[in-house]
Amino acid sequence: MKARNFRYIRPASLDHAYRILKDNGDDAVPIAGGQSLLAGLNMRLSAPKLVVDIGDLKELTGQSHAHGTVRLGALTRHGELLRSALVKRHVPLLARAATEIGHVAIRNRGTLGGSLAYADPAAELPACAVALDATLTLGSLAGEREVKAEDFFKGLFETDLMPGELIVAVKFPAMQASTSTGFAELSRRHGDFALVGLAAVATMRGDRIGTARLAYFGCVDRAKLARSVSAAITGLAVPLAGASAFEGAIGADLTPDDTPGLRADTKLRMATVLTRRVLNSLANRAAA
Ligand SMILES: Cc1cc2nc3c(=O)[nH]c(=O)nc-3n(C[C@H](O)[C@H](O)[C@H](O)COP(=O)(O)OP(=O)(O)OC[C@H]3O[C@@H](n4cnc5c(N)ncnc54)[C@H](O)[C@@H]3O)c2cc1C
Asked: Is the CB of 113 under 6 A from ligand 1?
């Protein structure tokens, strides 16, 4: 199947893009890397009259680090997350997660902003943004506003983006010496979307977990901050010895549905296994 006919425009500037999006309302949709949108257009899941190509806008690019914050432009490609020395040093969770996104061709085109805006519940980067307590900068003709990642994801493919708004950049707290991060996912084949995955950020006190933010993906309708599990693991020594209280907390945070080929109780079991793996990996990093 092929997409319905649409007009295509490449704005000259970010303000130009905002103007086009405002003037065309629901008829217009932005395209960045096109790795999700084009598939949707070809399957006729949506049929916009106008596709606004934001992929060349310099205002949406760039990587910087200042005052303990790393700012990445919305057009940062998944492949750049893998290769960037700044990302590897200050937000290594993003570089680790990017290894699991699709395949090389997808990572070369797909963007950070596109992944967050698309809000696939099984995508890696939304969960990383939530675990890292990232802040999104959203822009429109009305100006810019900031939204915490955990407030940005509203439901299945639903976000806080208002009509005419674009993700401009994402700000991540830079890793501190005491911060440790962990990541794991289970998928049927490498590069497939995750069946269940987990991104974790923890402040370590020796071999004990101080504060923690765990975000699961692939389990429920969005990247989900697991407050109960995060609280239950506070003070735990890693590697874990035997069964742990966090296992009971997982059910309080995650209430998955049965999906074709995967029952809800299996997802919870997989989430428990992944949590144990990720927590034990924090111990290795703390030791390093
Ligand atoms: C075969 C295949 C396998 C894949 N596997 C994975 C995977 O394992 N994990 C994973 O996470 N992803 C996967 N993807 C999706 C890929 O990561 C996409 O690149 C990403 O989801 C969207 O980024 P994009 O830049 O391509 O966005 P686009 O496809 O251009 O846009 C996606 C949506 O976001 C909107 N949008 C884009 N940029 C902005 C912005 N700055 N502000 C506001 N709205 C914006 C668009 O209007 C559109 O609605 C896969 C894709 C394919 C085709």
From this structure: yes
Q: Report the atom number in ligand 1 closest to the C-alpha of 100.
A: 8
- Closest atom of ligand 1 to 166 CA is 42
Query: In whole angstroms, what is the distance from residue 216 CA to residue 76 CA?
Result: 23
Residues in the chain where the model's pLDDT stays below 70: 284-288
The predicted structure's pLDDT at residue 284: 62
Question: Going by C-beta distance under 8 Å and a sequence separation of 6 or more, which residues neighbour residue 176?
Answer: 68, 203
Rounded CA separation 193/195 (Å):
7
Q: Sign of torsion, CA 267 230 148 191?
A: negative
CA–CA gap between residue 75 and residue 62 (Å, rounded): 8
Closest to 124 measured CA to CA, from 153, 101, 104, 149: 101
- Tokens, residue 270: 């997989």
Q: Whole-angstrom distance between the N-terminal and C-terminal Cα of the chain?
A: 51
pTM: 0.97
* Cα 145 from chain centre: 19
Amino acid identity for residue 267 in this structure: K
Question: What are 135's strand-pairing partners?
Answer: 148, 171
